[in-house]
User: Fold this.
Amino acid sequence: MCESSIYSICPRCSYFSTADTDLYCPTCGVTLTSTCLRCGGPIRDPYALFCRACGTLQRPPGPSAATKEPAARKRDRARP
Assistant:
């Protein structure tokens, strides 16, 4: 992770990207944001829960939805 990079983050599922061309989350379809929802400061750490400038919560706590195992895979694995 490069400290000077600006990240785009999904405020719903925590997916993140450094690509300027990504406008929407490929996991849940929500518009990605690269600035704090409150103060407009840049998001420089995709793992931070809170804005470094104003302390506003930037994403839901817990694992990213992108890292969670899909329900269908869990269901299939549970079958004998």
Q: What stands out?
A: Residues 1-80 form one domain.
